[in-house]
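Fig. S4 source data, part A: sequence.
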Amino acid sequence: MHPSSAKIMDLLAAHGLHSQVRTLAESTRTAAEAAAALGCEVGAIASSLVFLSDGAPILVLTSGSHRVDTDLLADQIGARMIARADAAAVRAATGQPIGGVAPIGHPSPVPTYIDVELKKHGELWAAAGTPHAVFEISYDDLVSLTGAAEVAVES
């Protein structure tokens, strides 16, 4: 198991969660790829996306079936401007590559927001630090684990 994925598994266990990190042969870099590899709905993929909110990194956990409306998100969190982070900013904020960003395990805390639409799925899948690793988690456990604030990402 990749060291980043092992770290995620250790963090899950430390929080009393019994999720297992699964390393897949297929890429899980995109929500569509992850859903195909797991045999689940794209909406059940909890994509971890990094944005810059007035220049500071934030993490948005969104349903794989949604695109983040940055104007809507900015209104909800009181930001003037939200822009997608580039690969270097993602790595600096999370220590993980685009396509493998986990909702946890970052070098320092990143303000986190969660798409309320993820509630519609009983079982969610999130990246585990690499583009080939995922773990299963419930919406409530994901909110508790990350301290994420609930937001709507699509109008």
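Fig. S4 source data, part B ends here. The two ends are 39 Å apart (CA to CA).
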